[in-house]
């Protein structure tokens, strides 16, 4: 993905896949592949979605140690470390904000307090966290749904919408399959001509994944 796009890519390696040694390898693997930023969280592994019940978090000390290991592992300060805490759900907002500030003091670049549960809590995070804050926009989740302008006005410097493209892709796939089932005798089920499909795929991945196939469809790529 990082090779095929020309905008920064944020990746989610969950808990860093283990202790500080695992976090070190995780950072170096993602950084070496051109990822711009990762967020590492304080849930117990195996983790759960941040907007589901039944989560558990590791201790303050272990979380801060993992963030410090991530910061020390990166080879360039341009690789952004986002520290995510899920402590709001199991403890309270004060604990989550304490962890966010401790992570920033340990060298994290951005703080990510997951699953605030009201507009008041959402606004309180960037006021009390002593550094840039990220907002996770999950329609139907624990956090009230607001638009990006409203998030910016609250003081958030970055927002992620992890379900946006996934839901759009699933709905598009459902629509295409429903059309195929409803019109089995139609000659062209793809919205574009069939001979364009390889060219579209090659263009999407930067024309590098299947060079021979891309050359055969060079006319379409132009």
Question: Helical segment tally?
Answer: 10
What is the terminal-to-terminal distance? 22 Å
For the largest sheet, list the strands in their spatial order. 1-2-3-4-5-6
Mean pLDDT: 86
Radius of gyration: 21 Å
Sheet with the most strands, sense and barrel status:
6 strands, parallel
Low-confidence stretches: none
Shape label: globular
In percent terms, what proportion of residues is strand?
5-15%
Order of secondary-structure elements: EHEHEHHEHEHEHHHH
Measured as a percent range, the helix fraction is 40-55%
Number of strands: 6
- Which structural class matches the secondary elements? alpha/beta
Explain how this protein is built.
There is one protein chain. By secondary structure, this protein is an alpha/beta fold. It has 10 helices and 6 strands. The protein has helices at 20-32, 60-73, 87-90, 93-105, 119-128, 148-154, 164-182, 197-204, 211-216, 218-221; strands at residues 10-11, 37-41, 80-85, 110-113, 133-136, 158-160. A 6-stranded parallel beta sheet has the order 1-2-3-4-5-6. Strand 5 (133-136), helix 6 (148-154) and strand 6 (158-160) form a beta-alpha-beta unit. Helix 1 (20-32) packs parallel to helix 2. The chain starts with 9 loop residues before the first strand and ends with a helix.
Which secondary structure elements does this structure contain, and how are they paired or packed?
Layout: E1 10-11, H1 20-32, E2 37-41, H2 60-73, E3 80-85, H3 87-90, H4 93-105, E4 110-113, H5 119-128, E5 133-136, H6 148-154, E6 158-160, H7 164-182, H8 197-204, H9 211-216, H10 218-221
Parallel strand pairs: 1-2, 2-3, 3-4, 4-5, 5-6
Helix pairs in contact: 1-2
């Amino acid at each position: 993905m990082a090779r095929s796009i020309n905008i920064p890519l944020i990746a989610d390696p969950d808990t860093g896949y283990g202790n500080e040694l695992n976090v070190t390898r995780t950072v170096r693997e993602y950084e070496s592949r051109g990822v711009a930023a990762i967020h590492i969280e304080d849930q117990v592994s195996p983790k759960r979605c941040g907007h589901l019940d039944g989560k558990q978090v590791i201790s303050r000390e272990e979380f801060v140690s993992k963030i410090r290991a991530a910061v020390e592992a990166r080879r360039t300060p341009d690789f952004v470390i986002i520290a995510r805490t899920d402590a709001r759900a199991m403890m309270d907002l004060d604990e989550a904000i304490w962890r966010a500030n401790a992570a920033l003091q340990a060298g994290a670049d951005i703080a990510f307090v997951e699953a605030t549960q009201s507009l008041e809590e959402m606004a309180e995070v960037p006021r009390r966290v002593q550094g840039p804050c990220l907002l996770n926009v999950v329609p139907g989740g624990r956090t009230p749904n607001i638009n990006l302008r409203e998030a910016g006005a609250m003081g958030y410097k970055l927002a992620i919408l992890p379900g946006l493209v996934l839901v759009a892709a699933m709905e598009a796939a459902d629509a295409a399959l429903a059309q195929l089932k409803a019109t089995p005798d139609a000659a062209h089920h793809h919205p574009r001509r069939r001979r364009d499909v390889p060219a579209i795929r090659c263009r999407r991945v930067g024309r590098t994944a299947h060079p021979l196939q891309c050359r055969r469809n060079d006319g379409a790529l132009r």
